[in-house]
What does this fold into?
Amino acid sequence: MTVIEHRVTEQGFSCLGIPPAQGLGALQARLVDRIKRAALRRLHRSVRGERLLLRMYLAGEDATERTLLEELLPQSPPWLEQQVERHLADERRHVALFAQALGELGDDAESRLEPDWLSRRKILRWQRLAHRYAVHFEQGLLVPAYATGLCAEQMAERVLRRHCAVIGTEHEMYPLLARVLADEKAHVRLCENTLRRIVAPHEAAHLARLLNDIRRVDASFGVTGALAMYVAGWVLGGVGGRRR
Ligand SMILES: [Fe+2]
Ligand SMILES: [Fe+2]
It folds into this structure.
C-alpha cells in the first residue's frame, strides 16, 4: 500500500469509531442514559426485575448467535470462517452464562424470549439498509453484515458498561456482566479489523454513509426503548427499596 493509499484508508476508516453526539443528539443520548440508569436501579430491587434484565440479555445473545450462524457464516469467505466460528463460540458461551444465571434466580430459561417488538423493528430496518448498500461493495452483503455487527457490538459494550457502573463491583451479578463486557469489547475490535480488510479504500465513503444510517436507526429507537425499560422497572421494581 502506498503512503497516499494508507492515508486515504485511515481517514476513511475513522467512521468505525462512535462519533461524539452533538446538539439535540447529545441531549437525547444523555436523556436515554439517565432513564436507563434509573430503570436498572429499579429493576434490581426485585428478583422479577433481575430476571427480566437477564432475559433481555439472553434474547440479545440468542439473536446474535442466530445471525452469525444463519447470515454471516454462510456468506463468509474461507479465510473468515475460523474467525466467525470463534465469535460464534463466544456468543454461545454468553447464552449459556445468562441461562445459568437465570436458573440461579429460579427461572428455567426454557421458553426463550424472542427479541421484543422494538428490537425486531430495528433489525428489519437494518436488513433493508444492508440490501440497499450491498451493491456498493465488492464483498456485497458481507460488508453491511459486519457494519451492523460492529454497531450491535458497540451497543452491547455501551449497555454492559453502564450496567456494571450502576451496580458496582460488589454486586453478585458484576462478575458475569464484566466477563461478557470484556468479550464484547474484543468483538468490537474484531468487527473493526474485519471491515478494514473487506472494504476497499475507494468504498470507504459508502461505508461511512452506511454506518451513519445504521446508527441513526439505532438512535431513533433510543428514547422509546429507554421509556419501555423504565416502565418495566416501575412495574417490577415497585416503590420499595428492598429486593424481594
Ligand atoms: Fe455476546
Ligand atoms: Fe458479541
Remarks:
- The pocket of fe (ii) ion (ligand 2) is lined by residues 64, 91, 153, 156, 184, 187 (CB under 6 Å).
